[in-house]
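INTERNAL AUDIT FORM
Audit reference: QA-55
Scope: verify that the stored structure record matches its stored sequence.
Auditor: D.O.
Record contents follow.
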Amino acid sequence: MAYVEPYAEPTTPPPPAAPPPPARPAPPPRRYLSERQAVDVAFQIAQDRGLDVERVRHAHLDGAGRWHVELGGRDRANLVLDARDGRLLKGQFKQRGHGHGHGHGHDDDDQGEEWDD
């Protein structure tokens, strides 16, 4: 007669582990102004200062969330805007002569930067 091992006692499986707490939802992606919106804001700021600007010379969004917009026409404006809300962070404004004698314009320079002429 051969020896046969007895069947092992049935065991109950351990209770399932508690599910992990739900992950926090990812924050919504940061929303930036579109290029068109940034340009519109820049035109409004320049026109509020009495500048005669009629075209976009350059506009780009940098990696730090700022729009750099350069406007031209009779006058010039170079603006740096917060890409989230359009707030003016830095501005350079050059107003050319508007029939005021010898053509001397008025320069208004926010933040003390100089124009590269």
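Auditor finding: record pair retrieved intact. Strands lie at 53-61, 66-73, 76-82, 88-95, 106-109.
Action required: none
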